[in-house]
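In this section we walk through a basic example: taking a raw amino acid sequence and producing a predicted 3D structure, encoded as C-alpha cells. The instruction is simple. Fold the sequence below.
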Amino acid sequence: MKSINDILRVLEKQEKWQEQPFQRLLKCWAEVVGPVVATNTRPLSIQRDVLSVATSSAAWAQNLTFGRTSLLLKLNKKLPAPLVDIRFSTAGWQNPSVERKQQQTVSPHDHPSYLGDEISRPGATPTKDVNTAFGNWTKIMRSRSHNLPLCPQCQSPTPPGELQRWQVCSVCAAKQFVKQNS
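The resulting C-alpha cell sequence is shown next.
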C-alpha cells in the first residue's frame, strides 16, 4: 500500500494538477513586458505553443512584432513549456473573451424583472405562423401582468423587483437615468 503522501506526489506531477502555462504567463506578463506595454496589451491564449496577444493599436502590434524574439526569450525563462512564437493583433482588444469569462453572470432569478415563470409553457407546441405566435405571446404577457402592481409614474404593470429596486418600472427608470446623465 502507498501512503497518501506518495499518491499526492504522483498527482502533483500530472499536468492537470500543475499550474497551466497560460495562467503562469498572465501572472508574469506585466513584470516581463513592463507597465507601459502591459497597459496596451492583453495575452489572449496559447495554442500550439504560440502566444496570441491583443494590442490597443496596430502601431503597438507592429512594434512588438519587431521585438518579439527578445520578448520570447524573457517569457520562456518564466514558463514551464517554451513558446515558439508570439502573434500580436488588435483583434480581441475591444471584446476580449477573457473579460467576458471574468464578468459576473446574473441569474434570471436575480434580475429585478424576473416574475418566476417562463414565457413558454411546458409542453406547448411551437407555432410556425408568426401572427399566431405573437397572439399567444400577448395572451401570456397579459395573464402574467394581470396581478402585477402598477408603476406609480406610467401606471403599467411592473414586476415587484423593479419597484423594489427603482420605485418605478424599468422603462421609467431608464428615462430617469437618461435625464440625470444629460
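Looking at the output, two observations stand out. Residues 98-106 have pLDDT under 50 and may be disordered. The first strand starts at residue 41 and ends at 47. In the next section we compare this with other chains.
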